[in-house]
Write a structure and sequence with these properties.
CATH architecture: Alpha-Beta Barrel
Helix content: 25-40%
Number of helices: 11
Structural class: alpha/beta
Strand content: 15-25%
Number of domains: 1
Distance between the termini: 37 Å
Oligomer: single chain
CATH superfamily: Aldolase class I
Number of strands: 12
CATH class: Alpha Beta
Bound molecules: ligand PBG
CATH topology: TIM Barrel
Order of helices and strands: HEEEHEHEEEHEHEHHEHEHHEH
Length: about 325
């Protein structure tokens, strides 16, 4: 049976019939909002390539989060800019590191807001790599201990979920057992499982001051050409105890999001990264795209692909638009 009996347009003829047959509905419950915190007071330093995103001192962050909480966003993902960088990224696992301070302050003011922390060394190391550098290369096993220490110190500061993003082999297991050993067996791990070596992280490296000072991250982040490998990474992280697995970036990897959701059935997060945000903002800024429609379409597409959680810098604006609609 086909045309003229079958006419798909019948179900597109009014907004109300479209609402009834709509398969994917975006809500504020889908979003996790990334924030960048830094030392100081009363500071808000805009990130040039990410209009609407800034590095905030903790007091400014608390003020900004008032709206985030009022909008009903479930949580934030915290990144930190340290006071100083060194070879071993010491501030990453220091009790009075910037993330630890921010987490304590946020949990004190907004106890219900879910605080997820990015666990990595790249913002904290002088060389900008995600781990310990030995003989010009990132040493996997030497890095694991520092990543695990960072995760435990975040949990001790009050983080609700920790999210290792370093892409070292075995990090999820190392983080899980360190958390369990320190009395944090109730804290979930959201693993950046399929994290690709992507050009779309460019603006983030300005926001977090984390560009590698030599070489690149292709020795530990994934080759953009691979999808079967993403499934192996995801299964390995699940076996090591990951509670949520992530695909990152999102838009060039919608097929990977779909496969991970379909083949594992576990909660999947997708990271709508800085470059994806910057591209939409830049085009919208020129009047070349309708920003609201484009953003909602992008976020709906990521959810339709299979993401349960969409990590996005658009979260706040999208939540405002969804409230209005
Ligand atoms: C690194 C980290 C990166 C992002 C999140 N965690 C950057 C990188 O791997 O270079 C990228 C986020 C974005 O681009 O929005 N720990």
């Amino acid at each position: 049976m086909g045309f003229p009996v079958v006419r798909p347009r019948r179900l597109r003829s009014s907004e109300n019939i479209r609402r009834l047959v709509r398969e994917t509905v975006l809500t504020v419950n889908d979003f996790l909002y990334p924030v960048f915190v830094m030392h100081g007071r009363g500071e808000s330093r805009p990130v040039e390539a990410m209009p609407g995103v800034a590095n905030w001192s903790v007091d400014v962050c608390l003020r900004e989060l008032e709206e985030v909480v009022a909008l009903g966003l479930p949580g934030i993902l915290v990144f930190g800019l340290p006071a100083a960088k060194d070879e071993l990224g010491r501030e990453a696992y220091s009790d009075d590191g910037i993330v630890q301070r921010a987490v304590r302050a946020v949990k004190e003011h907004y106890p219900e807001l879910l605080v997820v922390t990015d666990v990595c060394l790249c913002e904290y190391t002088s060389h900008g790599h995600c781990g310990v550098v030995k003989d010009g290369a990132v040493d996997n096993d030497a890095t694991l201990e520092l990543i695990a220490r960072t995760a435990v110190s975040h949990a001790a500061a009050g983080a609700d979920v920790v999210a290792p993003s370093d892409m070292m082999d075995g990090r999820v297991g190392a983080v899980r057992s360190a958390l369990d050993g320190a009395g944090f067996s109730h804290i979930p791990v959201m693993a950046y499982s399929a994290k690709y070596a992507s050009a779309f992280y460019g603006p983030f490296r300005e926001a977090a001051g984390s560009a590698p000072q030599f070489g690149d991250r292709r020795g530990y982040q994934m080759d953009p050409a691979n999808a079967d490998e993403a499934l192996r990474e995801v299964w390995q992280d699940l076996e090591e105890g990951a509670d949520i697995v992530m695909v990152k970036p999102a838009l060039a990897y919608l097929d990977v999001i779909r496969r991970v959701k379909q083949e594992t059935g576990h909660p999947v997060a997708a990271y709508n990264v800085s470059g994806e945000y910057a591209a939409v903002k830049a085009a919208a800024g020129h009047g070349w795209l309708d920003e609201r429609r484009t953003v909602l379409e992008v976020l709906t597409g990521i959810k339709r692909a299979g993401a349960d959680i969409v990590i996005t810098y658009h979260a706040r604006e999208a939540a405002r638009w969804l409230r209005e609609s």
